[in-house]
Amino acid sequence: MPMVKASACSVSKQKFCFEINNQCEKSQIILDVFSKEKGKLELMILVLTVFVISFCLMFLWIYKGEKKDLAEKKANIFHVSVTALLLAVIPTAFVGLSLLVLLGTTNTVNLIFTLHLSKNQLLILSICFFVYLFVLDNILERLANHIFGEGAFLYTILTLIRIGVFNLIGKLIGLDQTVSITIAAGVSTIILILEIFYRYRMNKSDTTAEKSPSG
Questions:
Q1: Contact of 178 with 167, CB cutoff 8 Å
Q2: Eight-class DSSP state of 116
Q3: Plot region of 149 (φ>0 → left; ψ -120 to 50 → alpha; else → beta)
Q4: Do residues 140 and 146 lie in contact, with contact meaning Cβ atoms separated by under 8 Å?
């Protein structure tokens, strides 16, 4: 009888351990799925935030711009909302496309140098790079342009600053020094090439426009 009881107790313990392991595996699967979707969620939240802010600003701008009396404004509130909604799509689309370009650029550097960055890391890097480029980078570009003037030296300075900032962002999200400096230098170089190409196209268009009237 004692042997039977001990055997039954051992079986129950095994079942209990099996159930715990099963629950742990399910929890790990849920955490893995959540971590994979976390980057997409952050991207969607950022784009949605831009859309809401754009809609509010457009709505206030259109609403205050109307020179009608209060009763007409109340009657016209639906049309103002629709107009603001349509106008808010423009900056939202710009932000979305810019993030996709940055994500593609970052992923290209990741594939070329085999850095083995996860999708979540790529998304976080792209979002951080975007915030810097469209907030601080414009200010630094105007300041550097005022000090050094337009030219190759200006682009060199801006590229070095971007490499430093991107490297700092990479280290803050947990990348090691080699991976961080590689992704920073690669993305900054691609941005520099795109800028040079854009300036070349703009200068070519201006030259063509100046020659057209004389022709």
A1: no
A2: -
A3: left
A4: no
pLDDT 10s digits, 5-59: 445 455 555 554 555 555 545 444 433 444 455 556 776 787 788 888 888 888 8
3-class secondary structure, 175: coil
DSSP conformation class of 150 = S
d(CA 43, CA 47): 6
CA 66, CA 84: separation in Å to the nearest integer?
13
Cβ(87)–Cβ(34) below 8 Å: no
Give whole-number Cα distances, 188 to 79, 195, 199, in Å.
Answer: 44, 10, 16
Residue with tokens 């009608």: 68
Rg, Å, the chain Cα set: 27
Q: What is the pLDDT of residues 106-147, one digit of tens each?
A: 999 999 999 999 988 998 999 899 999 988 998 998 998 888
Which of residues 155 and 5 earns the better pLDDT score? 155
At 140, phi and psi to the nearest 5? -65, -35
Token pair 């004389």 is found at: 214
User: How many whole angstroms separate alpha carbon 141 and alpha carbon 147?
Assistant: 10
Residue 174 Ramachandran class (φ > 0 left, ψ -120 to 50 alpha, else beta): left
Distance CA 75, CA 94 (A): 32
